[in-house]
Amino acid sequence: MEQIKSKSSWPKREIGQELSPFPIISIDKQTSPKQSRMEVTVLHAKSGKTLTKLQNLNAKSTIADVKKLYQAKNSKLYPTRQAFKADPKGKVLKDEDILGDLGLASKPTLYFKDLGPQIGWSTVFMCEYAGPLVVYLIFYTRPAIIYGVAAAAEPRANVVHIAAACYSFHYIKRLLETVFVHRFSNATMPIMNLFKNCSYYWGFSAFISYFINHPLYTTPAYGTLQIYGGLAAFLLSEIGNLSVHLCFKNMRPPGTKVRKIPQPDSNPFNQLFKCVSCPNYTYEVMAWMSFSIMTQCLPAATFTAVGFYQMAVWAIGKHKNYKKEFKDYPRGRKSIVPFLL
Fold first, then answer.
1. Is residue 196 included in any domain, yes or no?
2. Which segments within the chain are labelled E, that is strand?
3. Are the beta carbons of 284 and 311 closer than 8 angstroms?
């Protein structure tokens, strides 16, 4: 006859509690399949060449974890310089994406792309916006250097001073928004884009300011009506642009990448959200259209047209992403131009 097990091996029972006839089995979470170790093979996105193999990962590891391990083997490739894809022709994976949710095969494989040297978005914006401010003010405050001493002695029209004030106001606002308002979803961008963006902003600034501050500049054909009408529209557009930026800020808690469906708030300028996905771009274009009308300056109108094209491309892309990400995204909205685009 088998020896009866000691009472200590049986589950204890509280008074009034019915004892289960089945043994109690505890499951160690560390033995869960999702926690099993995996080795991820990293291939080059273009050539398909094996770059390395990463251990100490599991199904709950994120792409951010992958980037840390990859940097440990390649110290120059800091996380913001790295881009990983589950498919060589697919989209870049986000840092918060989990390996177990990517549907990787039995031999987990990721494709790597070097994004090149990176620079912080705040630094980029400061360079982009400080440059035009300095360039324009050089033409405005030091005309003798640009046009000659004799030409600089000529009297200036009142609209020239108004234009300088508006131009300065716009870029000072941009600089302050960069420091106090904007919350960036991406920490960095390729450093080569800095030179391209600065060339665009700085170059157009010199182009515009050269003509507006020129001694032979011709005032608008419709006089004060055109000047002050354009000024009023410019200021309203700038206020609208700032209102939208503040609304975007309030939708994203500090230190997060939370994305929500943009919705209008109590600010009347933000009611434009009901019509377009990117009203900040809409107000930006309206501001430069108003500036062009106010100054009747062809270079300013050219800058407005080029800017509208670029912002329309960005707005269409963001609008498509909103529709993909949010199934209940409002159908009546357009990208940048109400009811049209």
1. yes
2. 37-44, 50-58, 82-85, 109-114, 118-120, 188-190
3. yes
Location of structure tokens 């990983």: 84
Hey, what's the torsion of the CAs at 190, 201, 199, 281, to 10 degrees? Answer: 40
Examine the domain organization and report whether 98 and 159 are in the same domain. Answer: no
In this prediction, residue 184 has a pLDDT band, given cuts at 50, 70 and 90, of confident
Residues 283 and 199 in one domain: no
Q: Are 130 and 178 in contact (CB under 8 A)?
A: no
Total domains in the fold of the chain: 3
- The SS3 of residue 173 is helix
Does any domain span residue 27?
Answer: no
Q: What pLDDT score does 36 carry?
A: 73
The domain that holds 65 is classified in CATH as 3.10.20.90
Within 10 angstroms of residue 241's Cβ, the number of other Cβ atoms is 24
214 shares its domain with 229: no
Q: What pLDDT is stored for residue 26 in this prediction?
A: 39
| pLDDT of amino acid 19 | 47
In order, the DSSP letters of 244-283 are HHHHHHHHS-TT----------S-GGGGGGGTBS-HHHHH
Q: Are 322 and 329 in contact (CB under 8 A)?
A: yes
Q: Note down the domain range covering 314.
A: 220-340
User: Is residue 335 within 8 Å of 279, Cβ to Cβ?
Assistant: no
C-beta separation of 12 from 81 below 8 A = no
Looking at residue 51, its pLDDT comes to: 92
Indicate whether 291 belongs to any domain: yes
pLDDT in tens, 119-133: 888 898 999 999 999
257 with 236, same domain: the answer is yes
**Can you tell me whether residue 131 is helix, strand or coil?**
helix
| 86 shares its domain with 159 | no
Instruction: Name the pLDDT band for 134 (thresholds 50, 70, 90).
Output: very high
Buried/exposed 189-198: b ≥16 CB within 10 Å, e otherwise: beeeeeeebb
**Half-sphere exposure of residue 156: CA atoms within 13 angstroms, side-chain side:** 18
- The answer to whether 143 and 215 are in contact (CB under 8 A) is yes
